[in-house]
Amino acid sequence: MTDDELIWRVAGGSGDGIDSTSQNFAKALMRSGLDVFTHRHYPSRIRGGHTYVEIRARDGNVTSRGDGYNFLLALGDSFARNPSEHAVYGDEEVKPLSENLDDLREGGVIVYDEGLLDVEDVPNFEERAEENNWHVYPLDLRSLAKEHGREVMRNTAGVGATAALVDMDLEHIEDLMSDAMGGEILEQNLEVLHDAYEQVNGMEQSHDLTVPEGEHDEEQVLVSGSHGIAYAAIDAGCRFISGYPMTPWTDVFTIMTNLLPDMGGISEQVEDEIAAAALAVGASHSGVKAMSGSSGGGFALMSEPLGLAEMTETPLVLIEAMRAGPSTGMPTKPEQADLEHILYTSQGDSHRVAFGPSDPKECYEQTRAAFEIAYEYQIPSIVVYDQKLSGEYRNVDASFFDRDPAPDLGSTLTEAELEDAPHDETGKYERFQHDVEDGVSPRSIPGQSGGRFLATGNEHWPTGHIAEDPDNRVAQVERRLQKLDAIRDDLDDRDQQVVYGDEDADFGLVVWGSQQGTVEEAVARLNDDGNSVKALGVSDLSPFPAEEVRAFVESVDEAIVVEMSSTKQFRGLIQKEVGDFGGKLSSLLKYNGNPFEPAEIVEAVELEQNGGGEPTAQTTLEPAAGD
Amino acid sequence: MSKAFSAIEEEREVERDEFTPGIEPQPTWCPGCGDFGVLKALKGAMAELGKDPEEVLLCTGIGCSGKLNSYFESYGFHTIHGRSLPVARAAKLANHDLEVVAAGGDGDGYGIGGNHFMHTARENHDMTYIVFNNEVFGLTKGQTSPTSPKGHKSKTQPHGSAKDPIRPLSMSLSAGASYVARTAAVNPNQAQEIIVEAIEHDGFSHVDFLTQCPTWNKDAKQYVPYVDVQDSDDYDFDITDRREAADLMHETEDALYDGTVLTGRYYKDENRNSYQQEKQQRGDMPEEPLAERYFDDDYEWERSYDVIDRHK
Predict the structure, then answer these.
(1) CB contact under 8 A, A280 and B302
(2) B95 touches chain A (CB under 8 A)
(3) pLDDT of B157-193, one tens digit each?
(4) Nearest residue on chain B to A313, judged by CA atoms?
(5) Which of B56, B58, B57, B55 is nearest to B8 (CA)?
(6) How far apart are CA A351 and CA A486, in angstroms?
(7) Do A100 and A34 meet the contact criterion of CB atoms below 8 Å apart?
(8) For residue A520, what pLDDT band results from cuts at 50, 70 and 90?
(9) Chain B partners of A242 at a C-beta cutoff of 8 Å?
(10) For residue range A168-213, what is the model confidence (pLDDT) as tens digits?
(11) What is the CATH number of the domain that holds B139?
(12) How far is A8 from chain B (nearest CA, A)?
């Protein structure tokens, strides 16, 4: 890789303010005209433990984290409990430096806080630095911060040092600091920033890494996948959210909770996820657009209310933020292994809509689609994403969010419409009629005159009353199934699958969700290097776009299905839905808790094209099973 | 009167028969079942209060009690086992003009749904919760329930239950219910009076309703003779005093298993804000019912674009 990009990694202890520091630095890079992409790595602990955020910035579209990185700001872990001893988690204080060396590219730059960590404690540091031609700049960030203000301002000192080392103008950083703080705090931070900047500029510099230059056609905003989901919910008219905290779902829950009161909406933190989903059902039933969500463990508890929503045909949107499982698994690490969980949980022939978006824009589009379809077809819609996409920030045109709201309740009647709707001879509304277009029987809302009916999880007559009559049963089952065909037609118009790369390629990659952007970059790189490869990114998980996927797989000689799962769940879904291609589809799997890097996918494609082999990274290549 | 929901708060005389379905399904309750007593008292109470059947949302759980919806004409939501309360309280948040009543059995409310019971009581939603307490699982054929007496023998507890029964009234009080009463199917006048009071109370009203099960709990008394603690000179206590209420609840719970059926009002706190009031005071809930907004063509919907500047 050439260094036409800056991949800046800021590393410290959990609690060292890495998140806010990186946010502001990413924004400064974005304001300077660059495209940015962030990657967040953190342990499942509040204090102590090593965390980092990586910001990749370059001129033009960035869809993935890079292979490794080229600038390390190692703050040191100020929360290390027993820095002098090797505790169960190892020597905490130097981790922000020692644990980040493996991925640092040759010729990379290191700034570390010598006020807090000592390179003597990092095994073979000098040798490794020399071997890899790293340019090392020790700075006493702690003292520098203390001199002008408080120790916590050492992050600001680190940013100042970075700016000096990569020839970055301080203007955007200063603006952002002025937006975020004021008074004495601002003044002290500005002093720290400038002092660090000048001290570094006074040092002898040996590297040649500089920040790239770029320009945007229009104003940009920096948003994460969680923002995409929450903002779509707001624009879809969702004004009720119920939830229980669980990483990483909590991000969406928090964003919504902060916004809803000012928008006249309601957020409810409840006793458990059974209640969370049941509340969303109750609110939706009573005429409010509602959502809930969780991560895998909490979603397991939602299985029952999910089935209730399916049977009572109550519109419902659920969000599932995957993390590595099973059970508690690795709470802050991504995986895509809840796919089968969200598709199949709940008893009986249950059915639902599920989307797996790949980036913040798709999060927005597909969450809007999830609401529209849930309310139009009276079915639960699930948006499934993961820890990676949840906290991954990217720049998007600000105008992307300048959209009309869509608060419509879908197939819901007004009192005037209810007057002409079918009722039984006693005046009860036939909420679940047998023969209706697309299988959708419009609903009434409690409180409406002329709309009373019974909603029940039991099989039921058109008025909702409990029934075990075989003819009625068949009619109701078939009507509910009919909705799925109608939804598939609707989704075909929405066209949520994406094909990348060389249209005529005879080698393909198939991917879903958060790994899509990484595959996109790998495909571009492979094709630049003279290969001919294309990729299909699938977002519709249910109802599945079988024809589109079939056409893609038919068009290539062989394809690798890329997913973060050890049991090939997505490949299994394709083969189940398409009913073919067992001999054509191999798998590239990763389940070590870290998302794919583009080079790992490039390597897998090259290995497959040369007849297979063992990948060097912690990934697994599984051959095709045979038809 | 609401524009979108004209059944709500319409002032008119209501006949009790309006709560009887035009085509009444064959009852699935056994002859002599106490559940008929709840149905009768609820219909009477709603008519007495002048409620329109279409402004009432009755949410039930699973079990014999859950069949209440089939014989009571209103909007109904027959939910899943133990989950009537979270569905019901969200309906109340979505449209606080609705008259929301939740109902379920002792297994439903004190067993599988116990967590929701505790939290709904502590939040003090303005709704009524009726628990059909027959001290047994009826619909699944007579297994031991959370309120079955210690030593209760059944196919799932062949050597007699080793567990002390749950104390529903005490639990309700400590969880935060602001109206707690016990009545019995064999006492229809008191039952209707208590349900009227429970519905009128602005907060979470919990009615433990003793419903005899002639099929699976033959040994159980028919809850006669009963004593109304308000009418008896033996029980002098202040219904607004938490300690006095707690003492009498404890005594009532013990007495039931010794053959003395105590009923009546045990606790009432009229000073505590309902959940809706608490949320509205914090600006966390709109004054107008949220559901109305979706039928208001003139409402200017807020957009995410309104807050996008924070991302620039």
Answers:
(1) no
(2) yes
(3) 999 999 999 999 999 999 999 999 999 999 999 999 9
(4) B77
(5) B55
(6) 13
(7) no
(8) very high
(9) 90
(10) 999 999 999 999 999 999 999 999 999 999 999 999 999 999 999 9
(11) 3.40.50.970
(12) 20
Other CB atoms closer than 10 Å to residue A425's CB: what's the count? 7
Strands of the sheet with A50-58, listed across from one edge: A135-139, A104-113, A69-76, A6-13, A50-58, A35-41, A393-397, A220-224
Q: DSSP secondary structure string, B243-274? A: HHHHHHHHHHHHHHHTT-EEEEEEEE-SSSPP
The answer to pTM > 0.95 is: yes
Identify any residues that bridge with A509 across adjacent strands, giving them in sequence order. A535, A560
Strand (E) or helix (H) holding A269: strand A266-269
CB-CB under 8 Å, B91 with A282: yes
Cβ neighbours of A264 in B, within 8 Å: 286, 290, 293, 302
pLDDT band for position B219 (cuts 50, 70, 90): low
Q: What tokens appear for A400 in the block?
A: 């992307």
Q: Cβ distance B178 to B203 under 8 Å?
A: yes
The residue segments making up the domain with residue B53 are: 18-311
Which pair of tokens denotes residue A91?
Answer: 């020597």
Q: Is residue B139 part of a domain?
A: yes
Q: Which of A286, A314, A350, A393 to mutate to test the interface with B (most CBs of B within 10 A)?
A: A286
Residue B245 counted as domain residue: yes
CA distances from A248 to A320, A386, B180 (A): 9, 7, 40
**B138 within some domain:** yes
Comparing CA positions, the residue from A30, A26, A80, A24 lying closest to residue A51 is A80
A69 φ/ψ angles, rounded to the nearest 5 degrees: -160, 175
User: Tokens 């709560």 — which residue?
Assistant: B19
Rounded distance, CA B57 to CA B47, Å? 15
pLDDT value, residue A1:
43
Residue A626 burial (CB count, 10 A):
7
Q: Assign A190 to helix, strand or coil.
A: helix
Collapse the DSSP code of A602 into the 3-class scheme (helix H, G, I; strand E, B; otherwise coil) and give the result. Answer: helix
Nearest chain B residue to A307 by CA: give it.
Answer: B80
Record: contact B89-A282, CB cut-off 8 A: yes
Q: Residue B21: its chain A contacts at CB < 8 A?
A: 426, 428
ipTM above 0.90, yes or no: yes
Please write the tens of the pLDDT for every residue from A571-617. 999 999 998 888 999 999 999 999 999 999 999 999 999 887 899 88
Q: Which residues of A touch B88 (CB under 8 A)?
A: 282
Q: Do the strands A240-243 and A266-269 form a parallel or antiparallel pair, or are they unpaired? A: parallel
CB-based contact B308 A398, cutoff 8 Å: yes
Whole-number Å distance between alpha carbons of A566 and A333? 15
In sequence order, what DSSP letters do the residues of B48-68 get, joined into one string? HTT--GGGEEEEE-SSGGGGH
Partner residue facing B294 (CB), from A223, A312, A409: A409
Identify the residue whose tokens are 């309310």. A375
- A467: alpha, beta or left, given left = phi > 0 and alpha = psi -120 to 50? beta
d(CA A388, CA A333): 8
Q: Are A571 and A585 in contact (CB under 8 A)?
A: yes
Interface touch B90/A278, C-beta < 8 Å = yes
Give the domains, in start order, of chain A with CATH numbers. 6-201 (3.40.920.10), 222-401 (3.40.50.970), 415-494 (no CATH), 498-622 (3.40.50.920)
Q: Which of A266, A415, A425 sits opposite B290 (nearest CB)?
A: A266
- Beta-strand ranges (E) seen in chain B are 56-60, 75-78, 99-105, 127-133, 179-184, 204-210, 226-228, 261-268
Closest chain A residue to B282, measured at CA? A261
Tell me the shortest Cα–Cα distance from B309 to chain A, in angstroms: 8
Cis peptide before A543 (omega within 30 of 0): yes
Give chain B's domain count.
1
